[in-house]
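Trying the structure run again after the queue cleared.
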Amino acid sequence: MRIALFQPDIPQNTGNIIRLAACLDVAVDIIKPTGFFLDDKKFRRSAMDYLKYAKIKEHRDWDTFFKWSVKNRYRIILFTTKGKKDYLDHRYQQNDILLFGRESAGVPEKVHKKAKVRLIIPIQKKLRSLNVSSSVAIALSEGMRQSRQ
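Done. Tokens:
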């Protein structure tokens, strides 16, 4: 199981996700362009000294990432506020990539169309969304629990 971040634009969130992934021994795919440089001070501060333990793969753009995922037989699972299926009702596999959109804009329609599955983490109707790093932690925990990774 892997985590993919589509064009992340908040360095602190990305750093926090990488710290989580390092602790749980899960690889992170970063799909560029990002809204910051990976040597950004805010990013490095939130990732702390966990960067040296993290498995990070950078992808030039969506198309490069998608071709790589197909070639390596990964299944892309998009977490989106536009999803219809509850993340708890999905059967996760070890070859899943849990994809999360840009904090400010999610993912474009072409990404929605390429995802094998689109899931939602239900929240109160009157609220917009969870923080992306919280969403990653919730989704990854369930995926790892089910696949016993």
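Residues 132-147 form the longest helix (16 residues). Worth checking whether this holds up in the mutant runs.
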